[in-house]
Amino acid sequence: MEGLLDGATELRVVIIGAGMSGILSSIKMTESGYHNHVIYEKSDQLGGTWRDNTYPGISCDVPAHGYTYSFEPNPNWSQTFAPGPEIKEYFERVADKYNVRKNIRFNESVNYCAFEDGRWTIRTTAGREERADIVIAATGVLHIPYTAPINGLERFQGSSFHSSRWDHSVDLVGKKVGVIGTGSTAIQITSAIASKVEKFSLFQRTAQWVMPIENEMYSDEDKVNFKDSENLDAVVNQIHQDFDNFSNGVIDSESAMMAELEAECLRNLEENVHDPVLREKLRPDYRAGCKRLIFSPDFYDAIQHENANLITSGIVTVEENGIRTEDGEFHELDVLVIATGFRPDAFIRPTTVLGRDGINLDDAWESYPSAYMSVSIPEFPNFFMLNGPNSPVGNFSLIQIAENQLGYVMQLMNEIRLGNCSQISATSDATEAFEERRIEATRKTIWMTGCKSWYLDKNGIPSSWPWSRQQFFDEMKEPHMEAFDRL
């Protein structure tokens, strides 16, 4: 849809973040006639997660053909689970095709948003101040690194860095490398480097369920076949069907799907870890899927390499040249990688966001982050989030989530553009009712079966969408306008 609708008003839209969701927003804004928009990007490059994370072995745990914009399929993925650099290149190529870069202000982070006199005041780290009618927070979910409190970490004299800030100037050949953490990132790093360093030590606090996958390399013939839309659609539809099955499984801890998934993970452990002592160290004591499931074709092979060592004794302290653990052992290290994840409750923060009458988002989220249908917050008019609180993160593809949420948001935006209102945000009543339903629904999910994970908020409640994938799509088709304040 090019140009404005009859009687529509030209609106200024500020998009925060030039990752997957920000690029998507700019493309769809332009197509719908919202030409007066800008993306503020804190870095000198676009790409979000795939720009920040460059550690060895990085890849997406969603099949690549299911991790593309619906309007930009890619028949040329190199393998089932595409590596990070290839994904970043995909987003760069799409951004260039749709001329998105002209709308991006790089190296300019938004540090202040305030709703004043019916519009948003935006201030950036470059000293810029501007006014906007609408703000779209496309900042992502896992983008603020979290370093677990580790005694003595500052004393380490070797090379040390968070996995999302990988120091590529450090040569790992011939080095003793330690990795703290056993999430998806640590697992991928293990597979990539365990056999290539002098000694590899993985410090495990919690064992993980590992689902075996086949990461098929696509041949030139495969890529030619994928250029036929019918063939590619069949692959994508199968991926979506698998997501349906998985998302229906995790929201019912007693489902046959979860039982089958756990049995498959257990078979993987029993059949592929040969040392019985190591096997027991790798055996989780909670239900499969309670934490984010690990998908890997080769982690068990990597951790059994002669150079690899799995350490399950707790860390007492980091010293100048290694780590001392509770069993009294000292593990000498040259390089220490902190793979302890991200702050899942950050979203747009640390940006200061002030809503109507100066209400601070930190105060609104004092108990935990929440938003009606994951996109709108009471008393924060014309402020919308993509992959915001309680989105189906971990249930299926973030791209598919963002596309559906943006379609929903743009219907709300059109209410403003057509003059039906100047301010729109979810009502407190609708948001509270939504949260009550959501929290009640989480009680049946696999995430509530007894483990600690980043899915849980500080109150121990899962922060993800607790209903089916289809219900999410149904909700996103059209907003229920009675759930919104319109002024």
Task: Explain this structure.
Helix 1 (20-31) runs parallel beside helix 11 (398-417). This protein has helices at 20-31, 49-52, 84-97, 184-193, 220-226, 229-250, 256-272, 276-281, 299-303, 361-364, 398-417, 428-442, 469-477; strands at residues 13-16, 37-40, 104-105, 110-116, 119-124, 129-132, 134-137, 159-162, 176-180, 199-203, 210-211, 294-295, 308-311, 315-319, 322-325, 330-332, 335-338, 352-354, 383-385, 424-426, 484-486. Strand 5 and strand 6 form a beta hairpin. The protein starts with 12 loop residues before the first strand and ends with a strand. It has 487 residues and is α/β, with parallel strands linked by helices. The protein contains 13 helices and 21 strands. Helix content is 30%, strand content 17%. The strands form six sheets. A five-stranded parallel beta sheet has the order 3-2-1-7-19, with helices on one face. A five-stranded parallel beta sheet has the order 8-17-9-10-13, with helices on one face. The model is unreliable at 1-6 (pLDDT under 50).
Could you give the topology of this structure?
Blueprint lengths: L12 E4 L3 H12 L5 E4 L8 H4 L31 H14 L6 E2 L4 E7 L2 E6 L4 E4 L1 E4 L21 E4 L13 E5 L3 H10 L5 E5 L6 E2 L8 H7 L2 H22 L5 H17 L3 H6 L12 E2 L3 H5 L4 E4 L3 E5 L2 E4 L4 E3 L2 E4 L13 E3 L6 H4 L18 E3 L12 H20 L6 E3 L1 H15 L26 H9 L6 E3 L1
Parallel strand pairs: 1-2, 1-7, 2-3, 4-18, 7-19, 8-17, 9-10, 9-17, 10-13, 11-12
Antiparallel strand pairs: 4-5, 5-6, 14-15, 15-16, 20-21
